[in-house]
Amino acid sequence: MKVSKIVELIDGKIITQNPDNHDKEYLKAFACDLMSDCLAFVDDDNCILITGLINEQALRTAEILDIDCIVFARGKKLHDNMVNLAKINRMTLITTQYTLFEVSGILYQTGLKALKI
Amino acid sequence: MDITYDFEVYANDYQNAGNASSEIKKYLMQIGFTTKFIRKIVICAYEAEMNIVIHSLGGKLTITIDNKKIILTSTDKGPGIKDLDLALSEGYSTATEAVREMGFGAGMGLPNMKKNCKFFEIDSSSKGTIVKLSWEIKDETFS
Fold first, then answer.
1. Who has greater pLDDT, B136 or B102?
2. Is residue B17 scored above 80 in pLDDT?
3. Which structural domains are found in chain B, ordered by start?
4. pLDDT (0 to 100) of residue B1
5. Between A and B, how many residue pairs show a Cβ–Cβ distance under 8 A?
6. Domain A3-112 is classified in which CATH homologous superfamily?
7. Are A68 and A59 in contact (CB under 8 A)?
8. Most C-beta atoms within 10 A of its C-beta, which of A35, A37, B94, B127?
9. pTM, rounded to two decimals
10. Is A63's CB within 8 Å of B25's CB?
């Protein structure tokens, strides 16, 4: 699933986009506010992260795991330093008003798979 | 010949937490290891870095690379881990509510490090904790 499709499905807003992953096909998603759990379970760079955690550590965790697309749920506003960090690390950040549960449900129903843990 | 890099990590410095691990990742990428191999090392580096920031009075991460292995050492200035067996079990954490709100303190740090390295050693006293992790370098660890 491409970034454009994800944005369309969750009524999202692209805050910054990595031009390299414009046509990348994401296959899986992991929804989590606990970064330690992301570090423990994510092992797939075709995976997007769905989170409500608004801080630099969400970006750092994604960077460590080679995740280059993050969806921030619950209509939260991202800090400028998060956006700068995303640009440096060539990541796509998307925000949406939907809750974590709704985003997960919509994207699961339309084709993204869960990680096997 | 060994190559060694040290990275200072400061207590409670959440703003810069992750910088050392990010630098380590870039360095390992330059050497040309596979993404999968680098990920294992950097997950450990990041967990160790967060542990220093959250639980210690400050410390450092050291990475040493020779022809055969990579050694990552996390050294802090205390106060030490009271019960090592508990700290090594999944889900046990002494992190505060504020730390949990930042996405950490799930009790997965040390177990996660143990899972992602080849050799794991830990020693802790009130003077500090030293965690030493290592990986073997093989032909297939290069991309």
1. B136
2. yes
3. 3-141 (3.30.565.10)
4. 64
5. 70
6. HprK N-terminal domain-like (3.40.1390.20)
7. no
8. A35
9. 0.93
10. yes
